[in-house]
Specification:
The protein has about 270 residues and is α/β, with parallel strands linked by helices. Helices cover about 35% and strands about 15% of the residues.
């Protein structure tokens, strides 16, 4: 038997996931920019954990930027690989209206393009974010300062999970009371169809392996249902803002939205 046959069989399986599979790969490719081969990934994507970007002389509020699927603590918030285009660090502090805002960016490994598999899920990412906020010397030394989250894509679900965990932990009551606002930027509150297709490809692929956090993003997954059910009980006092795409993206010969409006809109204002 030709030793290459099993691999060829798997490759055919990936190609036969359907025409939707190739469409998904084209669709998701716009979520990431090309990485220069001569630049280390941590310089392009950004560091993991909670990173201080700007410390004013008299901070009265903390902003925390949280990226989404295959993003990064720098990459998601940069117009290009040029460090001067990292706008939360380079541009935001120059705005007079932000002169008292301390700025952070949080990074976690949600790169579905990595070859190795991952058992990490949204719960793990949320717990990691909460832990870093709780242990940050900057945030701990400014008791009472409100905390504002700006979250893109899956990052919004990570922030929601962190808020839930904080509200349910009696030892974090003071910290939880400081969570003031969340800005959701195209967050798939009800999941994304593209995640279901991506999950199938990762499971069948010989080049990549399954990622639990991608499975969490499947529409109406158990993880999403649990987050939404828990979150509606702890939103009192939080200022919530949802932003969704209004312009379709050109993908080959077709156009589409990465996250549909119905999923990107939180939809629980009555609470």
């Amino acid at each position: 038997m030709d030793p290459a046959q099993p691999e060829n069989k798997l490759l055919r399986k990936v190609s036969n996931v359907s025409a939707k599979g190739s469409f998904l790969e084209r669709r998701l490719s716009i979520l990431t920019t090309s990485r220069p081969t001569n630049e280390p990934s941590d310089q392009v994507r950004g560091l993991l954990g909670l990173n201080l970007l700007h410390e004013p002389s008299d901070p009265i509020v903390d902003f925390i930027f949280v990226h989404g699927l295959r993003g990064g603590s720098r990459k998601t918030w940069s117009a290009s690989d040029d460090p001067s285009h990292f706008w939360p660090r380079e541009w935001l502090p120059t705005d007079p209206r932000f002169k008292h805002v301390r700025i952070h960016s949080y990074g976690y490994n949600a790169d579905w393009g990595e070859k190795k598999g991952s058992v990490l899920n949204i719960h793990d990412f949320g717990r990691g974010l909460l832990g870093d906020i709780h242990t940050s010397p900057y945030i701990r030394n400014s008791p009472g300062n409100p905390i504002v989250f700006v979250a893109h894509s899956m990052g919004g679900l990570v922030v929601k999970k962190a808020c839930i965990l904080a509200k349910h932990d009696p030892n974090l009551n003071e910290l939880a009371s400081r969570f003031h606002s969340i800005y959701f930027l195209a967050t798939p509150h009800r999941g994304a169809d593209s995640a279901q297709l991506l999950n199938r490809i990762l499971k069948a692929s010989v080049a990549f392996n399954a990622k639990d956090y991608v499975n969490d993003l499947i529409p109406n997954s158990g993880a999403i249902q649990a987050i939404n059910d828990d979150f509606r009980h702890i939103v009192h006092g939080l200022q919530l803002w949802s932003f969704y795409e209004t312009v379709k993206t050109n993908i080959g010969v077709s156009q589409g939205l990465i996250v549909e409006k119905d999923s990107a809109t939180l939809g629980n204002r009555k609470l």
